[in-house]
Write a structure and sequence with these properties.
The chain is of the alpha/beta class. The chain is built from ten helices and 16 strands. The protein folds into two domains: 212 residues, DHBP synthase (Alpha-Beta Complex); 106 residues, Rossmann fold (3-Layer(aba) Sandwich), CATH 3.40.50. The protein has an eleven-stranded mixed beta sheet, with helices on both faces. Strands 14-13-15-12-16 form a five-stranded parallel beta sheet, with helices on both faces. Bound molecules: threonylcarbamoyladenylate and magnesium ion.
Length: 351
Amino acid sequence: MVLETQIIRVDEHNIDADLVLKAGEIIRTGGLVAFPTETVYGLGGDALSPEASGKIYAAKGRPSDNPLIVHICRMEDLDHIVKEAPAAAYKLAEAFWPGPLTMIFNKSSVVPYETTGGLDTVAVRFPSHPVARAFIEAAGGYVAAPSANISGRPSPTSVKYVVEDMMGRIDMIIDGGDVELGLESTIIDMTVPRPAVLRPGYVTRQMLEDLLGSVDEDKTMMSNDSTRAPKAPGMKYRHYAPKAELTIIDGAIETVIEYINKETARLKKEGHKTGVIAAEDTVAKYNADICKSIGNRNDERGIARELYRILREFDDEKATVIFSEAFDASGIGQAVMNRLLKAAGHRVIRL
Ligand code: TXA
Ligand code: MG
């Protein structure tokens, strides 16, 4: 079924209340609206409606065992959707909400299994983006939202890519400009005695440990261990991936440059359109068809913001093979390398 998708522009510095109410009304009546958050664009539906969740899976082409995050806009709304929230969760909420942190709780009975992919737990996030907050409030307070991309593609960081993936599939797109952070929220499981990070993000393990003492980490997060199932079901899928085959080349930088240049020269002769993702200080040293700078290699925030846009651009420019330098995996860099590894299907060559 092809829907007529309305696009509205809402300025975060001057929010048009009437437009936001209109968007909220769509959610209240069972429709779908894509909206900006500080991390990536979300694809929203009523979190308490099984039918709306079903529509989200259909619009994304997403397997329905992959649970959705419920977005709230007021701390006091948490109680309604969770069975209990441990004291540690309030500590984290005080420090990081509103913001790019998602916490997993045991769900209350009002949250349908369609929203949680059949799980007894629910993921909750309180985003900081002013447009997201106003929209969630207008929508009734509980908006289920995965990233607003077709399943398997890089999450959209600007409205252009939401339009590309979702036009005709949903009722409305709220254009709030480019997002601020560019990678999805950190996910932490609060249902276990020792909270565990299931997906790395802007809020780093160190930041969480500073507040809670020691925090666990899902062992499958940075590896390709197919004998274990990740606790966040979505992390098992090949994800964030450009259409071209992407390989990460790790090693001393001069050796990496030499290796990639040799490979791209060979692949060009075979008729490939080759691409390279490199830091700004080395990007000029490559001879691929398309060479993109991801910014300063010491600026993890900048790299996080650019990554998905760059992966999407390679699709636009029809690259068929891409090589990427490896980047530092500490702090926020862990989130960057987690997404890059997934985009590469864990193809890494260590020189
Ligand atoms: O920043 C974000 O979190 C963005 C914006 C839109 O808020 N949303 C987002 O949603 O990234 P999505 O659906 O693309 O990723 C949600 C992840 C998936 O890996 C899913 O498996 C996991 O969260 N998840 C959701 N509920 C869960 C639960 N109850 N237990 C474990 N993992 C869960
Ligand atoms: Mg996603």
